[in-house]
Specification:
Radius of gyration: 24 Å
Strand order of the largest sheet: 7-10-12-11
Distance between the termini: 36 Å
Number of strands: 12
């Protein structure tokens, strides 16, 4: 199955698929042409990963963040050949994008993509944090790593400098969208509605008024000017309370990766670049796995894939993160997994005794799988390992 069927809608022409690969190649070529020698070291604690990373990243010159990253989790053994950096991006993004910190919020009740929280100013340093987050997101793209959660499509369009439309509102605020559609499709003068180019909104429990244009409080909405009203209301809804935060985010991003480098992509492709593929295709996984001291027909290998098939997508993602450092896949699926020396396929190696737990080498995408004597034993040990083991000192 073509990996692009997981990325785009069914029936997308092959020419588009090739076009996306071309876009990706152009972006990576720009990154490669602008990479710098040596490395930059980041030393963090798992317990305070957000604050540690914030203070260190903001002290480093932005262009130095293009150097190879050397990540250290305090108190843990393990050389970083790429696996530690992958986990750092994943764990840090999970923290900094967490709605509990009030910097971001879910785009809607049934939409778990993220957008900037208009109430983020409750933190007096929020603009500096958004600049930091912009840098980290740019670093993730530059170093071909993934983040834990994706942004809303309108936010991705903002990153690309694309104009937002009424239709973009539907996914993040259906009620607001439907009200503007009603205005568009009905005669506002015949309905006798008294609407003006002014809108009231709530921010942290305080009702505020905003004029959509100069003197808007005295300008009624008519059939003649309602398209302008809809346009201004749409822009207001997207910018409401987040204009300065968006500016800081984009400034931070642009310091590391010039925003014009993203010109090749549309918003859906940008989401894929940031988060990888969401659904895990077991058949693709099997096709792109190699074995050491086992063969494809070894009973432990057969049991391993039986266990993987028995897992739901969340548990498969946990297994993938246990072995590779992230639960996200590259755009090309398992065939494009990266290791310390470039492309590095997922590997299952026969190591240890049946009393041992499986162990992982995230820099090499390798799972050490002991020669268990039964499927039940393998399932129990593997499940325990992926749900309870953390860190690079696990061996």
């Amino acid at each position: 199955m073509s990996v692009f069927r997981d990325i785009d809608k069914p029936g997308v022409p092959v020419a588009y698929q090739r076009s996306f690969r071309w876009k990706l190649a152009q972006f990576r070529r720009l990154c490669f042409a602008n990479q710098l020698p040596s490395h930059v070291k980041v030393n963090v604690s798992r317990q305070t990963i957000f604050e540690d990373s914030f203070h260190q990243i903001m002290r480093i010159q932005p262009f130095d963040l293009r150097r190879r990253l050397y990540l250290i989790f305090r108190g843990e053994e393990g050389l970083d050949y790429g696996g530690v950096a992958r986990e750092w991006f994943f764990l840090l993004s999970h923290e900094m994008l967490n709605p509990m910190f009030c910097l971001f919020e879910y785009a809607g009740q049934k939409n778990y993509c993220l957008q900037i929280n208009p109430a983020s100013s409750i933190n007096p340093d929020h603009l500096t944090y958004f600049k930091f987050i912009g840098r980290v997101i740019a670093m993730a793209l530059y170093h071909q790593k993934f983040i834990d959660n994706g942004f809303s499509m309108p936010f991705c369009k903002r990153m690309l400098g694309k104009a937002l439309t009424l239709k973009d509102l539907e996914s993040i605020d259906p009620e607001f969208y439907n009200s503007l559609v009603w205005v568009r499709d009905n005669n506002v003068e015949e309905c006798g509605l008294e609407m003006y180019f002014q809108v009231d909104y709530d921010l942290l429990g305080e009702v505020k008024s905003h004029e959509l244009k100069e003197g808007g409080a005295d300008i009624p909405v008519t059939e003649e000017n309602k398209q302008e009203y809809i346009h201004l209301m749409t822009q207001f809804r997207f910018e409401r309370g987040v204009k300065e935060q968006t500016k800081s985010f984009l400034e931070g991003f642009n310091e590391v990766v010039p925003l014009q480098w993203l010109q090749f992509f549309d918003e859906r492709e940008l989401e894929v670049l940031l988060c990888g593929m969401q659904e895990i295709d077991v058949e693709d996984w099997m096709r792109n796995t190699m074995y050491k001291n086992y063969t494809r027909s070894s009973k432990q290998v057969q049991w391993f894939w039986q266990a993987v098939r028995s897992y739901d997508n969340e548990k498969r993602a946990r297994l993938l993160q246990f072995v590779t450092g992230t639960c996200r896949l590259p755009v090309g699926g398992f065939g494009e997994l990266m290791g310390s020396n470039g492309l590095q396929k997922f590997c299952v190696e026969k190591v240890g005794k049946e009393s041992w737990l499986p162990r992982s080498h995230t820099c090499f995408n390798r799972l050490d799988l002991p020669p268990y004597r039964s499927y039940e034993q393998l399932l129990e040990k593997l499940t325990f390992a992926i749900e309870n083991t953390e860190g690079f000192g696990q061996e």
